[in-house]
Automatic annotation (TrEMBL):
Binds to DNA and alters its conformation. May be involved in regulation of gene expression, nucleoid organization and DNA protection. Keywords: Coiled coil, Cytoplasm, DNA-binding. It comes from the Bacteria. PANTHER family: NUCLEOID-ASSOCIATED PROTEIN YBAB (PTHR33449). This is Nucleoid-associated protein Tpau_4009. Residues 1-28 form a coiled coil. Homodimer. Pfam families: YbaB_DNA_bd. Its main location: cytoplasm. It comes from Tsukamurella paurometabola (strain ATCC 8368 / DSM 20162 / CCUG 35730 / CIP 100753 / JCM 10117 / KCTC 9821 / NBRC 16120 / NCIMB 702349 / NCTC 13040) (Corynebacterium paurometabolum). The keyword Cytoplasm applies. NCBIfam families: DNA_YbaB_EbfC.
Length: 96
């Protein structure tokens, strides 16, 4: 039983370290070949949005909206991928 409790404690420490690393990691999502970029942290917080002036057309707001959504989706996918890399090994569970 002591071994099991020690394993649980070690996994909890590893999980907390992985979560802290994710929070400190900067991730980028982009669309339109980099014309729209969204920067965030590994815990899902969006910290910056960069829009190239070339895509700002008052006559075509829909394209800009699509690019922003695409960049946000890319950021979300990149964040999920990083979380899987960092947390995946910890999700294996404990031996019972």
């Amino acid at each position: 039983m002591e071994d099991l409790m020690a394993q649980v404690g070690a996994m909890q420490q590893q999980l907390m370290a992985a979560q802290a690393e994710l929070q400190a990691t900067t991730i980028e999502g982009q669309a339109g070949g980099g014309l729209v970029k969204v920067i965030g942290t590994g815990d899902g917080q969006v910290t910056s949005l960069v829009i190239d002036p070339k895509v700002v057309d008052p006559e075509d707001v829909e394209t800009l909206q699509d690019l922003v959504l695409g960049a946000l989706t890319d950021l979300s996918n990149n964040t999920a991928e990083l979380a899987q890399q960092k947390m995946g090994p910890l999700a294996g569970g404990l031996p019972f």
